[in-house]
Amino acid sequence: MAYSYFGKKILILGIGLTGISCINFFLKKGIIPKVIDESKSPVFLHKIPKNIQYHLGTLNHKWILESDLIIISPGISSFKPILVHARLLGIEIISDIELFSRETICPIISITGTNGKSTVATMVKEIAKQSGYKVFLGGNIGFPVLRMLDEQADLYILELSSFQLEHTFTLKSKIAVVLNVSEDHINRYPQGFNQYKKTKLSIYKTAEICIINFKHKLKNIFDNKKSKKWITFGTKKSDYQVYYSKKNFILCHNNKKIFDVRQTLLCGHHNHENALVALAISDAMNFPRNCVINTVKKFSNLPHRFQIICRKKEIDWINDSKSTNVNSTKVALDSLQTSGTIRLLLGGDSKSANFNILKNYFKKLKIKIYCFGKDGKNLAKICKTKSIYVETLRQAMMLIAKQVVSGDTVLLSPGCSSLDQFSNFEERGDLFIKITKEIVSQYT
């Protein structure tokens, strides 16, 4: 179906990288949109062409209600009253992902989940390249998707957040996968976790091949969807499994051994499962197995994702700043193998998540918890006997520097958004790395 936007009043919400890509998309079609940003001084304001009308500081209700089509950036909540009202009036609100899906006929692999999206998407991209595909990765990582339309491609890989999926309706994925679903962004969804989960699962609606995590109880989506091809992972009864023993961590397909992930540079059981999903996707795409195995063997943890920064005086310093939800912290703790004390840096904006699920978990661990940031005081109450609160990450690390001993592991896995004190999780992780290097440089 060919979509025409001529004669429509088009409004773009948000002047971030996504918004700028949307402006350029319409200008190439000879259409001049209007633009709104709730910030009074958006970072990319200078990138807006002079012939574009824009409104800053508030959502201009008049512009919204007189629009025919609104493209909403993922950082803007679609549950704002004026946008709910606009939808009730029949005004179409879509994402840049939806615009993209209407324009391309190239095969798409779509990947979402609470944790692990970037690792799996990047791994699959590298496997596709080794298999001879001209491939581009975009969405929540890499390029804004509309920029990829300018490139000649054999395959697109999309990493998608729940925010991007909220207004994506016709995404024609060759393969779609939900890696996992756990509590996150509860402050964004009025109906709580179930609404968040439903948004994630919507990625399967128009997909050809669906890869499903049995372990996360996503089996209910099988109902009334017999026409699709389903591939499973996550349990012993799945199509794809990780077999653990004392000596081996084997990736298996239908109980046949493929290779041992201990031959790779990947750290943590969660990354073994990420490699398993990359294998399942690759098999569904008929990528050569040797390309899969060779790529995974050389693949190391992405920056800020359970990244071992330093090992000195038998102390491990691990940067897991990408941990922005409570489950990612639990996964990081599960991935540690240490007899020493775990010194956990926990804090930031909890996004209204329930951290009490860690209470009994913390009690069983040999752990000291250093809480910081906006919700640090409340987080310190979860396990009072093992927790301490300070205002900043630096203060917490200075305290750790005085207390850490040989055999300990220092883990930044905050479980929270970084936006209370940092621009993003990368800035938070970079500060951790910088301070770590300052501390260990004093060791003799």
Automatic annotation (TrEMBL):
Keywords: ATP-binding, Cell cycle, Cell division, Cell shape, Cell wall biogenesis/degradation, Cytoplasm, Ligase, Membrane, Nucleotide-binding, Peptidoglycan synthesis, Transmembrane, Transmembrane helix. The gene is murD. Gene3D superfamilies: Mur ligase, C-terminal domain, Mur-like, catalytic domain, NAD(P)-binding Rossmann-like Domain. Its EC number is 6.3.2.9. Residues 111-281 form the Mur ligase central domain. The lineage of its organism: Bacteria, Pseudomonadati, Pseudomonadota, Gammaproteobacteria, Enterobacterales. GO terms for molecular function: ATP binding; UDP-N-acetylmuramoylalanine-D-glutamate ligase activity. Cell wall formation. Catalyzes the addition of glutamate to the nucleotide precursor UDP-N-acetylmuramoyl-L-alanine (UMA). This is UDP-N-acetylmuramoylalanine--D-glutamate ligase. It is an enzyme of class 6 (ligase). Residues 304-414 form the Mur ligase C-terminal domain.
